[in-house]
Specification:
heterodimer; A: Rossmann fold; seven-stranded parallel β-sheet; two-stranded antiparallel ribbon; B: alpha/beta; Rossmann fold; 2 domains; 10 strands; 41% helix; binds S-adenosylmethionine
Chain lengths: 190, 274
């Protein structure tokens, strides 16, 4: 299986979890990463420029109709949903889903709608249930699912809810998630 | 055209049906969000499949009209993205001062908050009496609200915060009167605004403008349609006219990339070259 996109969702505690995950991915990583991290609706590009310091992969705050390129990291901008189309991203200001905009559910559902089984859905630490529904549809369409082990999560609510609702493929401590992604995507070296 | 998945063919046929039967043209809207809204509409109508909706919509005008409303997204706020208004004050207002009279077009103005925000900004810059603002949308319902300028009172707290962050120079409550649960905007704010129905997909140019503002509308269009609308904007702007897009929209991925210079890059304010 060639995975084209890794769709990641997280809320409370996400910043430090993403730091750990992203810093362990090597250059020329063969899949694209799309990330929804819940945050305040007026927050600026601070999040993506902060995380850029910890990864060799180029980090973008998505602009509408931006092309999806392997080995790049794409963040949902504050106050916009991030959706996947064939080959590029779209944004929307549709009403919040699961009380959130950007919503993890929206990203995961649209990612698997386009890529079917060629997508990996990852849920990390989080304090609400946004993402559970999305992970369920992603799994139903044949995608690979990974959830952070609740006891390694700053906030276990999202991981626990996901594990309860979905027959998750991998429940992993945070430090094992990047190596697993590297393995699944067949990336060379670490 | 490539081979589509069955679900996508259903969506495609529904959208074509809506066009051929009623003339509502969503054919080049961005598919992912359109699909989401169709699926939430199915749930709301207790229908089980897209073909079922298609059959019903073709024969039942009321259903088609509800679908039309379900497909349009009207999210807006006064002084949404305050930094845009700060950049507008700093970069665009000095240019506007050089004109005895100027025209602004707000395309896709929804329920009007963005337009009244501009009116307030221009009022505070002492330029409001020199302008004419054309505010258009494809949806006549939102235009009715826009014309009235009456909004739920409970939103005023948020709008006041945004107004202050946008560099507002007075007290926001000077711009409205409270009436039960509503805030009624002061009538003078409406004096230089003309509201009208205009569909960016099907309607053409109707004037020449010094400024065109179109925020969070083009995100709903695919790239082909974005290019088409950018052609309309380009042809409707005067030389060195200003184009303002939404915070996460860009001219970069369109054919008109080289037709504009950046005026305020982060705020998506562009200036037409020559
Ligand atoms: C999300 S709202 C944006 C409102 C405002 N510009 C803002 O940014 O706050 C999008 C608006 O675009 C309008 N719209 C959608 N398709 C359109 C079209 N083809 N022509 C004109 N307006 C359209 C919708 O009716 C809606 O009011």
């Amino acid at each position: 299986m060639t995975y084209e996109l890794i769709a990641i969702g997280t809320s409370l505690g996400g910043l430090s979890a993403l730091k750990t995950l992203l810093r362990s991915l090597p250059t020329a990583f063969p899949a694209a990463l799309a990330i929804v991290q819940h945050r305040h609706k007026e927050s600026d590009q601070g999040l993506s420029s902060f995380l850029q310091k910890f990864t060799v992969l180029p980090v973008h705050e998505v602009e509408d109709k931006e092309r999806i390129q392997p080995g790049h990291v794409y963040f949902a901008p504050a106050d916009y949903h991030l959706l996947v189309e064939y080959g590029y991203f779209s944004l929307s200001v549709d009403e919040p889903v699961s009380y959130a905009r950007p919503s993890i559910d929206v990203l995961l559902e649209s990612a698997s709608d386009i890529y079917d089984e060629r997508v990996i859905g990852v849920l990390l630490t989080g304090a609400n249930h946004d993402g559970v529904q999305g992970l369920r549809s992603l799994k139903a369409r044949g995608g690979m699912t990974i959830v952070q082990a609740p006891d390694t999560a700053e906030s276990p609510i999202l991981p626990e809810a996901a594990i309860a609702a979905v027959n998750v493929d991998w429940v992993l401590p945070l430090s094992d998630i990047a190596p697993r992604l590297i393995h699944l995507c067949g990336a060379a070296g670490v | 055209m490539g081979i589509l998945k069955p679900d996508d063919v259903d969506i495609h046929l529904l959208i074509e049906g809506l066009y051929y039967r009623y003339g509502y043209d969503f054919r080049n809207y961005a598919k992912a969000s359109l699909k989401r809204r169709i699926h939430s509409f199915l749930k709301a109508e207790h229908l089980s499949s897209v073909p079922e909706l298609q059959a019903q919509m073709l024969r039942d005008r009321a259903c088609a009209d509800r679908l039309l409303l379900g497909l349009t997204v009207n999210t807006t706020a006064m002084f949404r993205d305050p930094s845009f208004y700060i950049a507008f004050r700093q970069q665009v207002v000095p240019l506007l001062r050089t004109y005895p009279f100027f025209r602004i077009w707000h395309a896709g103005c929804s329920t009007g908050q963005e337009v009244y925000s501009m009116a307030i900004l221009l009022q505070e810059a002492g330029l409001y009496h020199r302008c004419r603002i054309y505010a258009t949308d494809a949806n006549d319902r939102v235009l009715q609200t826009a014309r009235q300028g009456i909004y739920p009172y409970k939103q005023m707290q948020e709008y006041t915060q945004l107004y202050l962050k946008a560099g507002g120079q007075r007290t926001f409550s000077e711009y409205y009167t409270a009436h039960y649960n509503n805030a009624i905007l002061r009538p003078f704010l409406r004096e230089r605004i003309v509201f009208g129905e205009h569909n960016l997909v099907t309607d053409g140019s109707f004037n020449e403008f010094n400024v065109i503002i179109c925020r969070n509308v083009l995100i709903y269009f695919d790239q082909m349609l974005q290019n088409q609308v950018h052609e309309l904007f380009y042809n409707s702007l005067c030389k060195f006219g200003i184009l303002g897009l939404g915070k996460q929209e860009t001219i970069r991925f369109t054919k008109y990339e080289t037709a504009y210079d950046d005026l305020a890059k982060a705020e998506k304010l562009y200036r037409r070259r020559s």
